[in-house]
Design goal:
mainly beta, nine-stranded antiparallel sheet
């Protein structure tokens, strides 16, 4: 049974929330539509110095000159961002729309790096923020627009970029020139722009989208920042009459025990965090089903060693280090794998966190990875109790669960 998608609160904005667009780095792809415009690929360098930026060419006709893409979405808060650079013209429209009642328009000046204006057009939108941010590359800016779209029947969201004349008019007779360059476009749920996530034929659901069909335990507003977390080992201790002991360790790595507290969560129309918890607990049938847990304080690996090539071995288990201690990692999101410090050759990521290389890494090559990981878990009880403290507000003492092995 599917579980309703979860969008985390802004305090977790540092964790990747995905990219709802496809072919986010290639506006020449047919996933992107154009109106009175054409797109030329590889026309300029992006913020990383790679020739991936596309040029938007405004046709020499009267009208709006745009490139856009639609994505499935319901009413909510969304952030659209893109890297922009002027070409023959320096004013650009960045727009979010529900396609029916309302659009939110951000006009930017790529000469001065300023916002010309930011306004909603229609009744069903509220602008949270509109900005243009400098980058390390002179003249290359990141435009960011965040808004709440509130149309209750909304089924999709549009991300639109339009070429304007040098006075900022979006409806004009263009000259057929390359108006501006665009790269690394991202549309994500939430109220801030995260690090860019490149997509191709499918959108990226982000770390909160889960994997292998397993849902992620939501991190909700009202959840206490206090998290109880403890490693658990399995050891048999046999003590003789003399007091001597024989100890046998049964596990090569610990299981992790967690407990979360919910001081105040809402149970009201439009803000029903209690229903979110009830949904996942009941869909998983208490202790029966497995889920993924993102520990915001312990979910990222950076240059973590997971093996050394010997010229013949192709399969390696991903691992992470806690100072000098190493344990396996079984579920990961968007890993970057390096072979002796360089991007690894072709490989597949297995469901249990194993990396299988197409060709065995050379002998002596150090294998490392960076990215995010999950704890695969199950609940420790078949009952989930919450107490109503006032109207529409509830409190839960403890939600306990344990990590699992595949």
């Amino acid at each position: 049974m599917p579980i309703t998608p979860f969008y985390p609160p802004s305090m977790l904005a540092s964790l990747p929330r995905g990219n709802m667009l496809t072919w986010s780095g290639d506006q020449t792809n047919t996933a992107w539509q154009t109106g009175n415009a054409s797109v030329v690929g590889g026309a300029a360098n992006d913020v990383d110095g790679q020739p991936t930026a596309c040029a938007v060419v405004a046709a020499a006709v009267l009208g709006q000159h745009e490139v856009w893409q639609a994505a499935a979405a319901k009413a909510g808060v969304y952030t659209l961002s893109a890297y922009l650079q002027k070409s023959a013209h320096h004013c650009v429209l960045v727009q979010l729309t529900d396609w029916t009642t309302t659009s939110v328009n951000l006009y930017v000046d790529l000469n001065a790096g300023t916002v010309l204006s930011a306004t909603p057009a229609g009744p069903n939108a509220v602008i949270y923020s509109a900005a243009i941010e400098p980058t390390a590359v002179t003249g290359l800016w990141r435009a960011v627009l965040t808004a709440r779209l509130t149309y209750s029947q909304m089924a999709s969201i549009g991300a639109i970029f339009g070429a304007c004349d040098d006075s900022g008019n979006v409806y004009w007779t263009a000259d057929g020139a390359e108006a501006f360059f665009i790269s690394q476009v991202q549309l994500e749920p939430g109220d801030s722009a995260g690090a860019y996530l490149k997509t191709t034929s499918a959108p990226d659901a982000g770390i909160w989208g889960g994997m292998l069909g397993l849902p992620v335990l939501p991190f909700l507003p009202g959840q206490s920042p206090t998290v109880t977390k403890a490693p658990k080992w399995s050891t048999q201790v046999v003590r003789t009459a003399s007091g001597r002991e024989r100890r046998t360790a049964y596990w090569p790595s610990p299981l992790w025990q967690f407990a979360l507290q919910y001081e105040v969560i809402r149970h009201r129309p439009g803000a029903d965090e209690l229903a979110i918890l009830w949904e996942i607990f009941n869909v998983l049938q208490g202790q029966y089903g497995a889920f993924l847990f993102v520990d915001p304080t312990d979910c990222q690996a950076s240059s973590a060693a997971f093996g050394t090539g010997d010229g013949s071995t192709k399969t390696f288990q991903l691992q992470r280090q806690i100072n000098g201690f190493t344990e396996p990692v079984y579920a990961v999101y968007s890993p970057t794998v390096l072979d002796n410090g360089s991007p690894a050759g072709a490989y597949t990521l297995e469901p249990n966190g194993q990396i299988v290389f197409a060709a065995a890494p050379a002998a002596g090559h150090a294998l490392t990875w960076s990215g995010y990981f999950y704890f695969g878990c199950r609940f420790l009880e078949d009952e989930l109790s919450f107490e109503q403290i006032v109207t529409q507000l509830w409190s839960g003492k403890s939600l306990k669960f344990t990590s699992l092995r595949p």
